[in-house]
Amino acid sequence: MKKLSARRRHPLAAVVVLLLALAATGGLYTAFAPASKAKADDTAQSLTIEQGKKLYEVGCASCHGTGGQGSSDGPSLVGVGAAAVDFQVGTGRMPAQQPGAQVPAKKVIYSQAEIDQLAAYIASLGAGPAVPTKNDYSPEGADIAKGGELFRTNCAQCHNFTGHGGALTHGKFAPDLGDVSPKHIFEAMQTGPQNMPSFPDTTMTAKNKKDIIAYLNAVNGNETVTPGGFELGGLGPVSEGLFAWVFGLGALIAVAVWVAARTAKAKKS
After folding, report:
1. Do domains 40-125 and 140-235 have the same CATH topology?
2. Boundaries of every domain in the chain
3. Is the domain 40-125 a CATH 1.10.760.10 member?
4. Is Repeat among the key words of this record (predicted)?
5. Bridge-partner residues for 150, per DSSP?
6. What topology is assigned to 140-235 in CATH?
7. What's the confidence (pLDDT) of residue 109?
8. In the beta sheet, which residues pair with residue 74?
9. What integer best gives the mean pLDDT of the chain?
10. CB neighbour list of residue 246: distance below 8 Å, 6 or more residues apart
């Protein structure tokens, strides 16, 4: 026992214990530190961007330039953000089938994984709106009445107050929003595609965007319910204006004929 106690009191014993403790701490840190996970995430993100770049070079570079700088056939994509890519490619608008006044939605040709890769690559070119999460665009708990007020103030001029769309000038149009997913509606408000103005969070908060999505879901969610019987206001400004013009003008002509007939009859008598 005396020999053991003497060894413990050896001048180098404290140094040895400290070295062992440091070695053990270093080993545990290496094993459990999040740095390895972060490094793995960075590697995975770099791979996603590289794959997105390859897809971009095949399907997008001919119009938007090899580095996303744009050309005479397509605008610059630097700074548009991942949300713009997710919307344009996720609705089939891009790649465009042919140039025109407006690029319509069509069948999507990329998988969601490929869309994510393209979005990651475009996002790496410059900061822009990120792809929203489900919590961002879910209408659950939103204020439908407030959404209706916001929609009628900011959107109904083009999309009609029920979101069924309408004609614009020079061959452009506001699309029907009845079958558009909440995610893509949120992204459209965030990024302002084509003829639509953008509504960033500084202009319209994320909560207000959710309110608008909830309103659209309410007015378009049940096709069997049409307040007022006939779907008033749901046909768009061109068809409704034509109806008013034809029948209104017809009524005015009928009244004019009646007045002329009565006047002629009065003169004879």
Report:
1. yes
2. 40-125, 140-235
3. yes
4. yes
5. none
6. Cytochrome Bc1 Complex; Chain D, domain 2 (1.10.760)
7. 93
8. 71
9. 83
10. none
| Cα torsion through 217, 221, 225, 230, rounded to 10 | 70
d(CA 100, CA 166): 18
pTM score, two decimals?
A: 0.70
Q: Which residues pair with 268 in a beta bridge?
A: none
The per-residue pLDDT for 26 is 63
Query: What size, in residues, is the chain?
Result: 269
Residues 6 or more apart in contact with residue 143 via CB below 8 angstroms: 211, 214
- Looking at the DSSP assignment, which residues form a beta bridge with residue 71? 74
